[in-house]
Amino acid sequence: MTEDSSRGLSDLRSVADGASLYYLGTIVVNIVGFLLNLLLTRVLGASVYGIYAYGTMILAAVLPFANLGSDISITRYLSANKDDTAYQQRMLGLAYLTTLAISGVVAAALFVAAPTINAYTLEEALFTTAMQAFAIALPFQALTQVAASTMRGLERPPEKTVIMVVGPALQLIAIAAAIVVGYSLLGVAAAFSVAAIMAALFAISYSLVRADLRPAAGYSKEEVKEFYNFSAPLTLSQAASFLFKRVDVFMVGIFLASADVGIYNIAVLLAGVIAMPLAGFNQFFPPVASRLYANEEYDTLQSIYATVTRWSITASVIVALPLFIYRTEVLAIFGPEFVAGTAVIALFVAAQLFNAAAGPANDVLMMTDHQYVVMGNHFVFGLANVGLNYVFILEFGLIGAAMATAGTLASLNALRVLQVWYLEGLFAYSLEIWKPIAAAAVASVVMYSLHLSFDGLILAIGGGALGVGAFLATLYLLGIDEEDRRIADEYLGMVPDR
C-alpha cells in the first residue's frame, strides 16, 4: 500500500469512526425524539402540539444568531491547529465568550417579542407564555452546541456522541415527568427549558474534563478578526438556511391553523430521519477536509469526498424506502389526524434523497474557503423558498408548502455539487453508484408486494425489516467496492472473504 493510500485510508477511518458513532447516537436521539413526539401528539392532540412545534421551530430558527457561528468556527480552528494548544485555547475562549454574550441578547429579544409573534402568526392564547419559556432555553442550547463542537473539532466521536444523546434524553425525561403530574403545554414548555439548562451544564463540564483544553483570553486583534471573518458569514448563512429549511413551518403557522402546523411538522421530522447517515459523515468529514485542504493533499480529499458521497447515498436509501412506501402506516401511529400528511412526507423523502446525493458538498465548500458562496446559496434559495411558499400555500394549502420547500432543497443540493466541481475540481460520483440503485429497486418490489397480505403497524415494521434485508443482500451480491472492503476488513472487521 502506498503512503498516500495509507493516509487516505486513515482519514477515511476517521470519518467512518465519527460517522458510525454518530449514527448510533443519532439512532438513539431519533428514538427518543420519536417517543417524545408520539407522547406529545397523543396527549396534546394536533392543535396544541402544533403550538409546541411552532415555538420550538422559532427557537431553532434564532439559534444560529445565538452563537454567531462559533460552533462551526471552533470546529475549524481546533482541527486545523492541533500543534498549537495555546491558540486552540484562545479560540475556545473566544467561542464561549461570543456565545454567552450574543445568546443572552437574542433570548431577551425573543422573550419580549413573544406577544408580537403570536399576534402575527397563530393567535393562540397559550403561545405567548410557552414561547417565553422556550426563550429561556436558548442560551443554554447555544452553549451546548459549542461544547459539542469542541469535541468535533478535536475529532473525538465518543465524547461528541455522548453530548448529543444526553440532551434529548433529559428533554424526554423532563417533559414526560411534566405530563405525568398533569401539566399540559405550559408545563411542557417549562420542562423543555429545565432540560436545556441541565444539558448545558453537563455538556460544558464533560467537554472540559475530556478535552486537554481550557478556554483562555489573550487573543490578538488579528485572531479576533480571523475568527469573526469566518463565523459572521456562517451566521448569515445559517440564518438564511432557515429560509429554505424551516420557513415553510413558519408560514404554515401564518396562513393555516395550528393543527396544520402539527401535521406538517410530524411529516417533516419523519422525513428528516433520512438525513441521519449524511449528518453522521458530516460530523467528522469537515475536520478531515479542513486538514487535507490546508496540507494541499487534494487527491486524498477527492477520494474521500467521493467515497463519503457514495456512502451517504447508500445508507440514506435504506432509510428512505420504508418511510416512503409505508408512509400512511407510519403517520397513523401518531393519530388519525396526522395521516393528512402523507403527500407532504412523500415530497420531503424525495428532497432528502437529493440532499443525500449531494454528499458533504456544502462542507467541502465551507472548508475550502468558499463560505461566502455558501452564504450566497442560502440567501438566494432561502428568498426563493419564501416566495414559493407564499404562492403555493395560498394556492394549494398544506401540500403547497411541501412542494415549495422540497423543490428548493433539491435544486440547492444539485447546485452545490456543481459548485464543488467547478471551484475545486472535485467530483462526487463514480460508476459504482448503480449498485445501490439496483438494490433499491429490488427492495422496493419486496416491500410493495407485502401490501397484498398485511397492513397497519405490522406491515410498517415487518415490511421495512424485510426491505432493508433485501437491499443489503442485493448490495452484497452485486459486489462490495474495493475501498469499502478495505475499510470493512482493516477497520470494522465486517466483510468475510469471498
Task: Please describe what this structure looks like.
- The chain has about 500 residues and is an all-alpha fold.
- The protein folds into 2 domains: about 5-430, no CATH class; about 430-498, no CATH class.
- Helix content is about 85%, strand content about 0%.
- It contains 19 helices and no strands.
- It has helices at about 5-65, 70-80, 85-120, 125-155, 155-180, 185-210, 220-245, 245-255, 260-270, 275-295, 300-325, 325-330, 340-355, 360-365, 370-395, 400-425, 435-450, 455-480, 480-490.
- It is globular, with a radius of gyration of 22 Å.
- About 50% of the residues are buried.
- The model is unreliable at about 490-498 (pLDDT under 50).
Properties at a glance:
single chain; 498 residues; mainly alpha; 19 helices; 84% helix
Oligomer: single chain
**What profile does the largest beta sheet have?**
none
Strand content: under 5%
Mean pLDDT: 87
Overall tally of domains: 2
Helical content (DSSP H or I, runs of 4+): over 70%
Number of helices: 19
